[in-house]
Amino acid sequence: AGGRGRRPGAGLGLAAAVKLTPALFLVFLLATGIAARLRGGDGEPWLRHARGAAITFTGATLLAAAALPKDSWRFWTDTVFRSDRVGHAEDTADQALRGVLARLLHTADPGAVWTACAAVVAAAGLAVAVAAELRGMRAWAVCCCAVTALLVSPVSWTHHWVWCVPVVLLLWSRGHRAAALGAALVFCSYAPWWVPHGPARPELHQSGAQMALSALYAGAAALFLVAARAATSLPGRRRGSALRQAVTKE
C-alpha cells in the first residue's frame, strides 16, 4: 500500500468488476487508511489505493453497461440479489457461512440470521486484517481479508477456496507447522463430499456429524482468523509498524 504506482488499486478494481467478492479488499484498504489516521499517522497510501480501486471498478462497470446495457441492468437490478441462481444454499459444496447456516438450521434460506452473522464475521475478520497490516504483517493481512471474503460471500464453492494454498504456506513459514499440516489435511480431504448430497437435497436433513464434515472448510477458515488474531497480538511477533514505514516513504 505504500507504493507509488501510476495506477494504484487498478488491478483490484478490475478484479472486483469481474467478480464482486474481491471488493472486500477495497473495504480493507479504506478501513486501514482510516485506522492509520486515527492512530495519528498517514493513511494516504491505503486510501490512495482504495480510491484507485473504486475508480477502476466504476469505470469498468460503466464500460460494461455501455457495451451490454440490458444485461448490466438485469444484473444490477435483479441477478446480483439472487444468490440461489447458482445453486441451493445448503449444497455441501457451499462452504460459505450462509451454506453452513442453511445446513445447521435445516432451511434453504437462513435469511436474517445469515445477514447478522455475516456482518459480525466481516467486521471481526477485517479488524484482524487491518491490525496485521498496520503491524507490517501483510501476508497475514491479505490472507485474513481473503478468508473473510469467502466466509461472508453468499456462495463460496469448494473450488473457490484456492486461498487455502497461501494460508497453509503462511502458517508453515511462520513456524505453525501443526496448524499448517492440519489445514492442508482439511482442504485435501474433500470431507464436505463425504456426506449425502444430490438432487433430493439431503443436506437439509443432516445429522450433527454430517454437519460438522460439511462445514470443515469454513471451520478451518474461522480457526485461521483466530490464529491470526493471536499472531498479530503477540509483542514478540512485531515486525515493524507498516504505519511508520508508510509515513517514512511519504
Please characterize this protein's 3D structure:
This protein folds into two domains: 1-81, no CATH class; 85-250, no CATH class. The chain starts with 9 loop residues before the first helix and ends with a helix. Residues 246-250 have low confidence and may be disordered. It has helices at 10-18, 23-38, 44-67, 69-77, 97-105, 111-134, 138-152, 164-173, 177-188, 208-213, 216-233, 242-249. It is an all-alpha fold. It contains twelve helices and no strands. Helix 3 packs across helix 4 and helix 6 (111-134) runs antiparallel to helix 7 (138-152).
Strands, helices and their partners?
Layout: H1 10-18, H2 23-38, H3 44-67, H4 69-77, H5 97-105, H6 111-134, H7 138-152, H8 164-173, H9 177-188, H10 208-213, H11 216-233, H12 242-249
Characteristics:
2 domains, 250 residues, mainly alpha, globular
Secondary-structure element order, N to C: HHHHHHHHHHHH
Largest sheet: none
If you compute it from the alpha carbons, what radius of gyration comes out, rounded to the nearest whole angstrom? Answer: 19 Å
* Percent range for β-strand residues: under 5%
Tell me the total number of β-strands.
0
Q: What's the overall average pLDDT, rounded?
A: 89
Give the tally of structural domains. 2
Number of helices: 12
Helix content: 55-70%
* CA distance, first residue to last residue: 11 Å
Structural class computed from helices and strand pairing = mainly alpha
Q: What general form does the structure show?
A: globular
| Contiguous uncertain segments of 5+ residues | 246-250
